[in-house]
Structures are given as C-alpha cells and as structure tokens.
Here is the input.
Amino acid sequence: MKKYLVQDSAAMLPYHIAIIMDGNGRWARARDLPRTAGHKAGMEALRTIVWHARVRGLRWLTLYAFSSENWSRPAEEVERLLSLLKLFICCDLVELHKKNIKIHVIGERRNLTKDIIALFCEAETLTSKNTGLNLVVAFNYSGRNEIVRAVKSIAIEVEAGRIKDSDIDDRLFASHMDTALMPDPDLIIRTSGEMRLSNFLLWQAAYSELSFVPCFWPDFSVVDFDTAVAGFCQRKRRFGALEQPQDVRKVV
Ligand code: FPP
Here is the structure.
C-alpha cells in the first residue's frame, strides 16, 4: 500500500531533485576554451549547488556526473572527467562529511578501475551515518543498463527458487535497482536547453516534474536553482489520479 504525505501546496518543496548537468562543452566553446575547461567550470557549479541545496534543506540531490555512454568521448576528455571526479571525492570528502552529507553512488561498478571503486566505497562508508542531505552521484550510469541489471538479478532469484514470477511487481522490481532505498525524483532539472532525459533515471522518472533551463551548466546559479524549485511549487501533481484538494506527495 503506497503512503502519501498530504501537505499544503504553499509549503510544498521537492524532496528529491535530480540534475542533468549539460552544456559544459558549449560553455567552453563559446569562450574559445577546450572542452575540459568547461568541465572544470562545471565542477565549480556542482560544488555551489551542493552547498546551496544543503542550505535550502533539500533531502535528496542526484547528479548525473558520467553516463555509460560518456566513455565514447575522446580519451583526453574522459581522463579529465575521471580526474575531476577523483578530485571532488578526495578534496571535498572531509567537508561533505563535516556538513553531515551522506554520499551514495549509483551506476555500474563492474569494469571501473580499483582506485575509483575504492574512492566510492570510502565516501559511502565515511558518510553512511550522516543524516543531512543525501547526495547521489550517478557515475557510469544509464537508466537502461540499470534496468537490465535489475532484470538479471531478479532472473537469478527466480531461477534459484527464492522468488516466484508471480512475486514480481513494481515494488520488487524497484528493490533490485541501484536506487532501491531512494525516493523517486520529484523534480528533474536539465540545463543547456536540451529537452530529453538521455537515459537518466528512466524507471524513477515516471512521475517526475521536468524543468529545462536554457543556461549551460557552468552558469547554473543558486538563483536558477531557486527559480526551478519555485516553478515546481506551482505544479499540480496527480500521479495518474484525479486532482486532489491538496497536493499529495509519495513518501518512501
Ligand atoms: C555535460 O556537458 C556534462 C557532463 C558529460 C559531465 C558533467 C560533469 C561535470 C559537471 C564536471 C564534474 C565531473 C564529475 C565527473 C564529478 P557536455 O560535455 O555534454 O556539454 P555539451 O553538450 O555542451 O558538449
């Protein structure tokens, strides 16, 4: 039985925001800079938004940092993105922990190098008891890959006789996803003016509100964040049902 939290719409803030941080390359090109400079500037925007989300009291923030398809970019660019990720975890982890932020990483870990896997484990273990903002980093992530991995893991359970095919429903399926213990995103923001999900949280986005922001990710500011949140507060969410006298939000 699903539970719903009924709130006055004026006080209705998203519980979980997910962001597709797009436009680093175009930001750099507009300045005659290499694409890697765009990613460096994107890293700064990422820091600013994480700290701001925490100050705003957001509970969950998911960032699409590196998709399964990003490996097909030029080696130099992939290398730069990996080193930015390592830098973020190495340099910011103590501060993130001090600020009571709990880190989660989603995406396929198989085939990642040992040093990256070790960094993810360190970040998740160190911050596991924190109770503030939940920061989810989607790395080597794609929605279809996550769904296929979930299907495989359910098939193994069925074959081993631990579950029956009649046990499979939305809830069981969701429990085999990387996001098993996470709420679905209420609001997905994409920067750079592109209007698509690009393989991000395909299962979880079923009832997400979408906000497409024209600026490139390095220019995305705290004001843009607050504007997207204010826009979300104006939306009427029905989750497939009829309009309610008050807004409803699913509670996980
Ligand atoms: C999209 O811009 C952005 C990414 C592929 C990755 C997002 C990365 C950061 C914000 C930097 C921090 C990195 C990590 C891994 C924590 P794009 O390159 O697709 O831009 P374009 O569409 O203009 O070419």
Summary: Residues 21-26, 39, 42-43, 46, 65-66, 70, 81, 84-85, 88, 217 surround farnesyl diphosphate (CB under 6 Å). The first helix runs from residue 24 to 29. Strands lie at 4-7, 16-20, 60-67, 102-106, 134-141, 187-190, 209-212, 247-250. The chain is about 40% helix and 15% strand.
